[in-house]
Amino acid sequence: MRLAKTEFPVTSATQISIMFDPNSLVQKAKTSAFYRSILNFALDRMIPFNKPHSFRIVEINDFSIKTSLPYKRRNFNHIRGIHACAMATISEFTTGFLLISRLDAKKYRLIMQRLEMNYHYQGKMDAFATFSISEEWLTSNIYQPLQTQEAVILPCEVKIHDVKGNHLSTGTIFWQVKDWSKVKTKA
Predict the structure, then answer these.
(1) Cα dihedral across residues 172, 58, 37, 73: positive or negative
(2) Torsion (CA) 72, 77, 80, 82 in degrees, nearest 10
(3) How many other β-carbons are positioned within 10 Å of the β-carbon of residue 123?
(4) Alpha helices (runs of H) in 103-139, residue ranges in sequence order
(5) CATH topology for the 56-182 domain
(6) Structural domain boundaries of the chain?
(7) Torsion sign over Cα 85, 60, 52, 186
(8) What is the DSSP annotation of 68-89?
(9) Which of 6, 71, 80, 85 is deepest in the core (most CB within 10 A)?
C-alpha cells in the first residue's frame, strides 16, 4: 500500500520571523485579528499564570490597549461576581503589556512596584480593561527623567468596565523603569 504524498504550504522566512519575533507579532496584531489570536495564544504560554483566566487583547495600537476579562467560573468570587484579584491581575497585565510593547526591552527593565485598586461596581458579565498613553507621556515620564535619575516610578491608571458600561474598578499600577545598565541584580 502506497501512502499519498502530503504537501505542506511553503512558509517564507519572513512569515516565520514575524510569528516568533514578539515585536513583529505585536505590530501585525494591531491590524489583524489573525495575528492578534496568535499573540493571545503565545501570551497564554509565556504567562501561564494568566492562562486559566482567558484574558485576551482585543485591541492594541501604538498608544492604547483594550483587554477582555471574561465572566466565567475561573474568574468568580464566592458570590459569582468577577473576583477582585482577577480585576487586579488584568489591570497589571494591561498596563505592563502596553509599556513593554513601547519600551526597548534590551535597554529598560520594567518591574511592578505596587498596585492599588478601587472597586466601584460588582462585575456580573464580561468586562474590558483599557489603558492609554502618548509619546509625550513616555518622553516626560520615562526618557527625560532617566537621563538624570537611576529609576522612575510610573503610576498607570487602568479602568475596567463591563459590557453595559458599568465602571467596575480603577487600578493604579506603579511600574519601576530602570536602564538595564543600572540594575544590580541581573535577570
Answers:
(1) positive
(2) -60
(3) 25
(4) 135-138
(5) Thiol Ester Dehydrase; Chain A (3.10.129)
(6) 13-46, 56-182
(7) negative
(8) EE--SGGGB-TTSSBPHHHHHH
(9) 71
**What is the three-class DSSP state of 132?**
strand
In this prediction the pTM is 0.85
Distance CA 159, CA 66 (A): 10
pLDDT digits (tens, 9 = 90+) for 51-97: 888 899 999 999 999 999 999 999 999 999 999 999 999 999 999 99
Q: Are 89 and 53 in contact (CB under 8 A)?
A: yes
Orientation angle between helical segments 13-20 and 22-29, nearest 10 degrees: 90
* Mean pLDDT, the chain, integer: 89
* Bridge partner residues of 173 (DSSP): 115, 156
pLDDT digits (tens, 9 = 90+) for 109-138: 999 999 999 999 999 999 999 999 999 999
Cell of 71: 465572566
Say if residue 10's pLDDT is above 70.
Answer: no
Q: What single-letter amino acid sits at 118?
A: N
